[in-house]
Specification:
The complex is a heterodimer of chains A (888) and B (110). Chain A is of the alpha+beta class and 888 residues long. Chain A has 26 helices and 22 strands. The longest helix of chain A is centred in the N-terminal third of the chain and has 41 residues, at 54-94. Chain B has helices at 10-20, 26-36, 48-57, 81-106; strands at 24-25, 61-67, 73-79. The N and C termini of chain B lie far apart (35 Å). Classes of the chains: A alpha+beta (888), B alpha+beta (110).
Chain lengths: 888, 110
């Protein structure tokens, strides 16, 4: 009798088969030798000898067999999967309602995560696009007492750091300034990165065209060269590939273009063009080169192989403290300046990053809700498929096989959902990147790439497993019961309980998401209503940075400024015009926090020195921004006299430093203007100088005419529309000087809104997520109530027939649904209180446990839940008792 | 492992030819090769088996356990349709090759 196959799977089987086969050969050979007359005593030895090296041949045979068996096993596994997939597609196609609902739910849940992940990955997780990113070290120089996050270094300090830090291969310097660029089109004001020649080498950036700076090109007296930023080259020069080798005029000198950079993060700043330090007239001036206090550059280093950030930190700190000891005078105002060396990825984080993380976290909650909802839909579907499973079970399908079939269906659904999700993410990622560009330097890295696709497919599979396996849990009913109960899928009480549980989970999670959104909306609404202390409407601002080669004395500066303001005030519609070093919400952190002494008081220790944010403003500044003068007077034209050593302080500064004393008439001294006593002539209203989310800051104002600012902001309050006002400003500037750029037109209200950008984005996205969460949870709730009503049709019919009031029956149904909601809300409440503390950093004026928000969200929930239950409840009371009884 | 003058691939052709005549066990295949080639081609007996297992992995032969003429359980090899195609292709290539070599050897001029 012949057998077709022998199951030789498994290592022992393989060895046994080969051994048996060879043993058979040797036996046969022995027998033949004996038949041929050999001595039976040594026939077997002879047979083995003619066979050859038995162990070697056995091993070779086993190797071949092993390969064959493995391949066959894989093929069988794949075949099973294909079979499962084909079957899944067929069954899903047969219930389009379930399939479409599940797909939409999953696509929304997964899509939210894909989009948020692409943002978080782009700005936080991946290394910046520098070849040397893992070794790049950004050297910050914080001065806590002045709230300065990063005090610049002077060129003298830079050379000391270079000499004292063997941990670095190279240490590059950087600063950024605006210059006028002439040639190839209109005169342009360009933001220019000014760097040591090794800067791009340190970052590991290869040029897109041409080359970057060569060693020695930053030496004093080297021929001026220029490298163009990618965006500038594309947007301003039309991606002219012949630009390398051409020249621009900057600062009255010819600069040769030697290369174009690839797209890079807007880090440390967004720059249009780049030049070596030798080309920068400020950086190369003797005053700057020879002064320890000419603090204007920052440092970025590349660690040598085998060196660590900690080593670099230690070495830098040693150099810093030596400077403090050897030159105490130069560190007078900044005694507590210290060194903070950090990896570039950490240094590039922006304030908005925590918002992105929270958004990703909330997106994950939305996905969990989607998961729970699809699990419960799947359960409902399985209840209808009881019979199918029972039959398959009876026909011999193992329970594991059926579970695998269910998981295949769910993974198939979630993978299909993830394809739609990627479409959604792809459609939204561009808009997200554009918005994010306003508050993170790495927005151009927010893209939908393979990392996002892998993440998406990963969570899709995970999702599929979760909502595929959860319904299979708790299913303990045996085959016989299921067959007996047949088509009426009333059997699995455990499944019904599981569905209720899932709906409660949905409600609880949706509650957390809604409260999160509610807190954010309250915050944002609070920010919108915040009294910023000025009137941002109808004011246009612009950046006016006078060309210093032309306006090279303060007299020339003043002449231009005066003429410009006089001309502007005469224009139709213009109410007032002013120049200032800063304006409200032009930056989000102190730029000029200045310590001062009050004349007639003993100098306090440095920790208790009065400090205020300094702005330098022209007369009419307060009228232009709409801040009231509460006591004393505003600056006047007369304050330009050398006699007019005057200052204005804000109300909060007056309170803090003068208490109940009248500050007007008091005198202060500012370290920058040594021994210059300034008389306080006025007290201004408080202003939120750093945006609506920041606290009111103590302000100190000095008259513009005495402390000329070349790089100034122009402010014009006008009744004309914004566009007209901008044109009018341009015309006024160009009427005075054809070649003087004026840029960055922005209304004061836009500056305020931009300062709220991260909150706006977070609020909008959270509101969106909350809407999705609520819709899914409501659908889930409505679904389960409808199902219960369907199950209890007979009971309700009987109740109605026995004279029950329809309203009583309705209430019976509503209370069932409401019970789920109330328990869900209870769990959600605890979860929200426990978890939403993570949002505290984003909340302004609202606590993460704000009872108002919780109450409002609970009310919304209960109303939506009532609506969701009402539809099936009405159906229940429209049952015709007679037909039910007849059918029963 | 080949006894003498056995070109690469020759053993495979001989095995396939042998099993194309009907299912056979390894010992039988070896015996058939010895007899039909008049013992000119000497195959070390053990070398046959790794070749058989390799052909089986490639799907050219398949196994079948059965009872041998001596009443013992033995592994038989049977040619598959794929193996038969392979045998035809190899055989015609072998003939062309042999003809070409013969022609060359028969040439009179250098």
């Amino acid at each position: 009798m012949k057998r077709r196959f022998r199951l030789s799977i498994g290592e022992r089987g393989i060895k046994k088969d080969v051994a048996q086969e060879i043993e058979f050969h040797i036996d046969m050979r022995t027998r033949e030798l004996i038949d041929a007359g050999a001595d039976p005593a040594d026939a077997r030895a002879q047979a083995i000898a003619t066979f050859g090296d038995v162990p070697r041949f056995s091993e070779a045979c086993e190797g071949e067999t092993r390969k064959r068996v493995h391949r066959a096993a894989w093929k069988e596994r794949l075949d099973t999967v294909f079979q499962d997939v084909r079957y899944a597609i067929r069954t899903l196609g047969r219930s389009p309602g379930y399939t479409v609902t599940a797909l939409v739910t999953l696509a929304l849940g997964i899509g939210a995560n894909s989009a948020m992940f692409s943002v978080v990955d782009g700005v936080l997780l991946r290394q910046p696009p520098y070849a040397n990113a893992s070794r790049l070290t950004v050297v910050a120089h914080p001065v806590p007492s002045l709230q300065i996050a990063d005090l610049a270094f002077s060129p003298i300090e830079v050379s000391e750091f270079r000499a004292g830090t063997p941990a670095f291969d190279q240490l590059a310097e950087y600063h950024s300034m605006a210059f006028d660029l002439l040639g190839h089109g209109d005169p342009r004001r360009v933001q220019t990165g000014v760097v040591s020649a090794d800067f791009f080498n340190v970052l590991g950036v290869k040029p897109y065209l041409g080359r970057t700076f060569a060693p020695g090109e930053d030496a004093m007296g080297a021929a001026p060269v220029l490298v163009l930023g990618y965006d500038f080259w594309v947007n301003q020069l039309g991606a002219d590939s012949s630009i390398v080798g051409k020249s621009f005029t900057m600062n009255d000198r010819q600069h040769l273009v030697i290369g174009v950079l690839p797209p890079l993060p807007a880090y440390p700043n967004s720059n249009d063009v780049w030049m070596p330090i030798s080309s920068c007239p400020f950086r190369s001036s003797p005053q700057v080169r020879n002064s320890r206090t000419a603090r204007m550059v920052s440092l970025i280093g590349r660690l040598g192989p085998g060196h660590t950030f900690q080593e670099a930190q230690r070495e830098l700190a040693t150099v810093e403290s030596r400077g403090h000891v050897e030159h105490p005078d130069d560190y007078k105002g900044v005694k507590d300046a210290s060194i903070l060396a950090s990896p570039v990825r950490i240094a590039m984080k922006s304030d908005a990053d925590s918002a992105f993380m929270i958004l990703l976290g909330i997106a994950a909650l939305v996905l969990l809700i989607a998961c729970a909802n699809v699990a419960h839909l799947t359960l409902a579907r399985q209840l209808r498929r009881e019979r199918e499973f029972a039959i398959r079970g009876a026909l011999g399908a193992a329970r594991g096989r059926i579970v695998r079939q269910l998981v295949t269906e769910s993974i198939l659904l979630s993978l299909a959902g993830s394809v739609i999700a990627l479409g959604l993410a792809w459609a939204s990622v561009g808009a997200l990147a554009r918005v994010a560009a306003k508050f993170t330097p790495r927005a151009n890295e927010i893209v939908l790439d393979w990392r996002v696709v892998v993440f998406t497919l990963g969570i899709a599979v995970l999702t599929g497993v979760v909502f595929g396996v959860v319904p299979a849990l708790g299913d303990r009913s045996d085959l016989a019961t299921r067959l007996r109960e047949g088509g009426h899928a009333t059997s699995s009480a455990s499944k019904v309980r599981m569905r209720s549980l899932l709906v409660m989970v949905e409600v609880a999670l949706a509650f957390v998401v809604l409260v999160g959104a509610g807190l954010m909306i309250r915050t944002f609404e609070g920010l919108l209503r915040t009294d910023v202390g000025y009137d941002p409407e109808h004011v246009v601002t612009a950046h006016l940075d006078l060309n210093f080669t032309k306006y090279n004395t303060s007299a020339l500066d003043r002449q231009f400024d005066d003429a410009l303001l006089a001309r502007l005030r005469l224009q139709p519609g213009v109410v007032t015009a002013a120049l200032a070093s800063e304006f409200p919400a032009s930056s989000s952190s102190p730029q000029n926090l200045t310590a001062f002494d009050i004349v007639g008081r003993p100098a306090p220790d440095s920790a208790h020195e009065p400090k205020a944010e300094l702005s330098i403003v022209t007369p009419a500044y307060f009228a232009t921004v709409g801040t009231r003068i509460l006591a004393g007077r505003e600056f006047t034209e007369a304050d330009r006299d050398s006699a007019g050593r005057v200052t204005i302080i804000s109300q909060s500064a007056a309170h803090r430093f003068f208490g109940n004393q009248n500050p007007v008439g008091q005198q202060i001294t500012v370290p920058g203007a040594k021994n210059l006593e300034l008389t306080i002539v006025g007290v201004s209203g408080d202003v939120r100088q750093f945006g609506p989310a920041a606290d009111v800051s103590e302000q100190l104002y000095l008259p513009f005419q005495r402390f000329t600012v070349r790089d100034a902001r122009l402010l014009v309050r006008s009744n004309a529309p914004t566009g007209a006002t901008s044109n009018l400003i341009k015309d006024a500037v160009h009427a005075l000087d054809q070649n003087q750029p004026v840029i960055d037109f922005r209304t004061l209200s836009a500056a305020r809104d931009d300062a709220m950008g991260p909150w706006r984005l977070t609020t909008i996205l959270l509101a969106l997520f909350a809407a999705v969460a609520l819709a899914i949870a409501a659908a889930g709730l409505g679904g389960i109530v409808a199902y219960t009503v369907g199950q209890r049709t007979e009971e309700f019919g009987i109740r109605l027939a026995l004279g029950a009031e329809p309203s009583a029956v309705r209430w019976l149904i509503l209370s069932d649904g409401l019970r789920l909601v109330i328990i869900g809300l209870g769990i959600g409440l605890a979860a929200a209180v426990a978890s939403l503390g993570l949002m505290s950093r984003l909340l302004v004026g609202v606590r993460s446990t704000d009872p108002m928000t919780y109450g409002a969200v609970a009310a919304v929930f209960v109303s939506v839940a009532l609506l969701a239950c009402l539809v099936p409840a009405r159906r229940a009371t429209s049952i015709d008792p007679a037909s039910v009884l007849k059918g029963a | 492992m080949a006894g003498s003058d056995l070109f690469v691939g020759t053993l495979d052709i001989l095995i396939l030819k042998s099993v194309s005549l009907g299912p056979q066990h390894g010992y039988g295949i070896g015996r058939w090769i010895r007899q039909t080639t008049n013992e000119v081609l000497q195959v070390q007996e053990g070398a046959l088996y790794p070749a058989l297992h390799r052909l089986q992995r490639k799907g050219l032969v398949e196994e079948e356990w059965g009872v041998s003429e001596t009443g013992r359980e033995a592994k038989y090899y049977r040619i598959t349709p794929l193996g038969r195609r392979q045998l035809r292709a190899e055989a015609s290539r072998w003939r062309e090759h042999a003809e070409a070599v013969s022609l060359a050897l028969a040439a009179a001029q250098p």
